[in-house]
């Protein structure tokens, strides 16, 4: 049984493709290889080049596969649906032409995945991590979002053979326990799976071990991150956007934070027999990307010592 460790550009501060401080994409791929990753995500739409030959050459040079592409956008607004469907076409047509890791015998769906994340709402961004303060969508707006996710997932599957996985994300309209459970009621597993993120679960007041087990029947792919509990307590007492909290280093190398990854290994590898990919993430300000390689190396080494990627 193999649980492969992969990485994501957010470890280098790549969350907004328009951020003027982003590191060069070639440097990110080079450092991903140096960190020991076998695969990477594309990160936000528009960061990696959409030219298949250019990207494929660089991936092969660094012995990397593509694990997933990401739609990180407003899933609620009806006016944004054409943009979302255009992203499905652009992302899926790219990632399906990139090098892939062979699927494990017990892997639920083969890579690459299409990660679907709701984002772009100030009122929720400032309420990230506060389930008692965050406003919820109206029934109509929620229905719009469910319809949009369904259309995204069906287009990805039917036209490209790509499995869509919905990622509950701090600061979006799919964040808290009530929203995640409602999502699983409204979208059948046949349509889309889940990508659960240990750090986002904890940030949003959920026990990642409990929720990984509770929703494992819906989980196709997993993100790992860790949280500095002292910084977390500080940012929870501020009116602060999620990525501004990340810029204050609320996320830390895996093994240096509060999440019990030894227990997570026992749950995933021993009890649930998970086989597939976990992706390390450590969001940060891209101006601090100089320490990214050292941090992700720490995370990889810690997880490998526990038994991941064996």
TrEMBL record:
SUPFAM superfamilies: Xylose isomerase-like. Residues 30-305 form the Xylose isomerase-like TIM barrel domain. It comes from the Bacteria. This is TIM barrel protein. It comes from Oceanobacillus aidingensis.
């Amino acid at each position: 049984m193999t649980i492969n460790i992969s990485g994501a550009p957010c470890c280098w501060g790549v969350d907004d493709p328009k951020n003027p401080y982003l590191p060069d994409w070639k440097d990110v791929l080079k450092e991903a290889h140096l960190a020991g990753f076998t695969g990477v995500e594309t990160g936000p739409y528009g960061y990696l080049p959409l030219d298949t030959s250019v990207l494929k050459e660089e991936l092969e040079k660094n012995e990397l596969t593509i694990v997933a592409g990401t739609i990180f956008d407003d899933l609620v607004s009806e006016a944004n649906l054409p943009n979302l469907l255009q992203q499905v076409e652009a992302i899926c047509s790219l990632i399906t032409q990139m090098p892939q890791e062979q699927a494990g015998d017990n892997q639920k769906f083969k890579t690459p995945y299409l990660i679907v994340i709701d984002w772009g709402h100030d009122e929720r961004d400032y309420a990230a991590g506060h389930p008692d303060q965050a406003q919820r969508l109206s029934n109509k707006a929620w229905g719009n979002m469910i319809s949009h996710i369904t259309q995204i997932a069906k287009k990805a599957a039917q036209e490209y053979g790509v499995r869509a996985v919905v990622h509950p994300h701090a600061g979006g309209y799919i964040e808290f326990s009530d929203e995640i459970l409602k999502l699983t009621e409204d979208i059948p597993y046949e349509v889309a799976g889940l990508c659960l993120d240990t750090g986002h679960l904890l940030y949003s007041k959920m026990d990642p071990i409990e929720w990984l087990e509770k929703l494992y029947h819906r989980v196709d792919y997993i993100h790992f991150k860790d949280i500095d509990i002292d910084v977390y307590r500080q940012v929870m007492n501020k009116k602060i956007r999620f990525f501004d909290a990340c810029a204050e280093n609320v996320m830390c190398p895996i093994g240096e934070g509060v999440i019990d990854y030894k227990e997570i290994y026992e749950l995933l590898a021993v009890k649930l027999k998970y086989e597939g990919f976990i992706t390390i993430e450590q969001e940060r300000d891209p101006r601090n990307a100089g320490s990214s390689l050292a941090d992700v190396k720490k995370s990889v080494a810690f997880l490998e010592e526990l038994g991941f990627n064996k």
